[in-house]
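Tutorial handout. Part one gives the primary structure; part two gives the three-dimensional structure as tokens.
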Amino acid sequence: MASSHRLTLAGFADTITFMSQSTNDPAAEARLREAIAHMSDGFAVYDPEGRLEICNESFRRINNYTEAETEPGVATYDGLGKLDESQESVEHKPFTFKQRIAQLCRDGTNVVIQYHGDRIYERHQSATPSGGMINVHTDITELKRAEEALRDALEMADQGNQAKSEFLATMSHEIRTPIAGILGMADILLEDGLNEGERREKVFSIKSAGQSLITILNGILDLSKIQSGKLELEYIDFDLHGLITESLDIFYPTAHGKGIALGTKIEPGLPAAINGDPTRLRQILVNLIGNAVKFTERGSVSLRAGVAEQTEEQVLLRFEIVDTGIGIAANHQEALFEDFTQVDASTTRKYEGTGLGLAISKRLTELMGGEIGIDSVDGEGSTFWFTVPGHIAKATVSGPAGNSSEKEYRATRALQILLAEDNDMNQMIAKAVLAKFSHQITVVDNGRAAVEAVRRDDFDLVLMDIRMPEMDGPDATRIIRQEPNEKAAIPIIAVTADAVVENREEYFAAGMNACVTKPINLMELLSAMNEALDEEVHLLK
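Part two.
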């Protein structure tokens, strides 16, 4: 790189030699001056006494000099090129040129320029044959900005990678903890000498650990869907007051156990029912209330719900979750809502959790067209707030949103049910759940076998796994829907480990009537069976 620098300056020296030899050729000198005038770099030549012989417009522009100030034979190097004494020369070895200097221009602006022709360097590399000096100035302001931007980007990438590494370490711990609990309790259950009460206690612990694991995995899936833009909101009328009560009720046992008060304040004018996405609104509330309860050791947690703005048909809801917990220092608050980030990611942290809740809440709030924020003082508690828009529901909605446990199961006879499931444990669970209602279960382990079973035998209902060997559930459903007889209308329920709600549209498009997720919840399954058995199936053409 240094050699190319020397060649460049040697070329300039040759140019000056040619120029001095061409004084009797006005046309050649004119061409040379025109070439110099159109150079993007600032270019100046000084005689052996330091008097300016020639410079171009770029030289004047970079140094903010007028044409009068750069008259040949009058202007000098000391007068034009003198640096501010406070400026400092810095050597940057990775770059082509060895010295970068900041020069204060006449108008007070700082332009980072590159001096090829500083006397210390030019004495060795840029002397003209007559003993003068070449001075070349290059404006590298944009280059410096690009270098800074690249440096910042690399720093952010490093921080992002570190955050992801910490997140993966945390996630590994959070996943292994409930799994270890499940396996440990299972080992205890295999021991002899446990009474019924002890067995029930261990089974409850296994269930609790499993639910924790599902919560973690759902959080990861939600963040993945949001980041990839695949999460879609649903818009339905729902009971807003019921949803608020339902979200708060989840945490009463934990709050009571910690001795903290848990309350709610619904401001006057809050609509009883709105049109929006109750599932995602509940998710945000549960995340924020759960955090408040977790980080509050004494005092209270309260939920305030009100209206920030309202028109005849639309409303901007505002929710505040106020706690008397540990609070959050101001320098940590901005990072709270970032993906893969926790205030304390160390191995000695007091509070467990994945740290995904706030990141997901922020993404969901923004997806719904609202905002989220925090007001907090370290050691004095926090107020997390968010706003979401909604349409005022035109009809009265009764009961908490999405409370499937209130739906009754209306089957009045034992059903012949075909279960298409390739996992032995899932087969066992489904059979045990349905056996309580005296239903007869036939099991197959792939979609092709399910199609053959439907053609061969009579069933009232099919529980169809989505992912199976040989043929998956949607493909098997499409084939069944094309049967030339009444079997084409058999109710089919999708049973899937895929928690992506948006995929349900694909299942319904294949001809399925309802959908439940694994692990199978009894009330959810019975509700889906009601829906499937009561619904008229539209045959595929």
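Part three, for discussion. The domain at 154-228 is CATH 1.10.287.130 (Helix Hairpins). The chain has four domains: 2-139, 154-228, 236-392, 406-534.
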